[in-house]
Amino acid sequence: MNEVSPEAPPVPFPIPAVVGPTAAGKSGLGLELARRLDGEIINGDALQIYRRLSIGTDKPTPEMLREIPHHLVDILEPNEAFSAGEFARRGRVAIHDILRRGRLPIVVGGSGLYLRALFEGLSPLPRSRPEVRAELEAWADREGPADLHKHLREIDPETAQRLVPQDRQRIVRALEIHRSSGVPMSDWLRRKPVEKPIPALRIGLTVPRAILYDRIADRVDQMVEKGWVSEVVKMLDQGFEPSAPAFQAIGYRQIVRHVRGELSLQEAVKDTIQATRRYAKRQMTWFRKEPGVQWVSGLDFDTVLPSLLHDIQCMKSRLEERSLNEQA
Question: Domains in the chain and their CATH numbers?
């Protein structure tokens, strides 16, 4: 994987980032901004990085991918682990590559920690200790990840709050960090990052809760109609284990349980809708705490788009001009 050269020029203006909860309309706004501003999209969704997971991640259609270049989409297999740090490294490479070609990077996604890592950097975390990880993995095999999550709530409630009990990979890592260093992961993440921050113009989409919840339910129903169950069956038939990192995602783990006969399809759909609504609530809590988010309505892009385009174009032109004057 390429790295950003230490000699790379600083990013000359804040990079637009469309953020907010799932089903708020981020992809639609991101595409429209990219069309009008000669932009390319950097995916900021933790699941769209996986190949084969298309229906259940609401991944851009092939037509969208042909129209607008997308980065960090379909880069890993479902059984490969990923992290916020790796996302930040790859995302920074993409930003500099897009800028070098004279186009505008536009980040679109709702994975809050990934986006914070990209723009602000992450403090260096303790190295993995194989013996500690092996012990925690054995615990997860024996008692299940929910039991580890319960323990995580006791020692690091802040990290536990943003992780679902089924997220085995990240729960194990959080416990490993605490056992190895004696310091909770949340405290490590608050330490000063090593990387220089990248300026960002965070555009947050907000939708009334009742409408957002209806959108989530409709989206889940549509995903099932499009063949979500068949998508999961195909991956299992291809040899991907139910314990694969991608299968721990909301919706996928419920569909896996349905395929294995543990849930009816109706139960899997209901559980997915409820879990997604809880996730959307956590996303809104996260982004409300992030500094400098410019909140706009996710219901009427025709109203908010002209002012956003004007702000981005003016900011970009002003700061590019300043950068050129400083170099002269």
Answer: 15-122+193-327 (3.40.50.300), 130-189 (1.10.20.140)
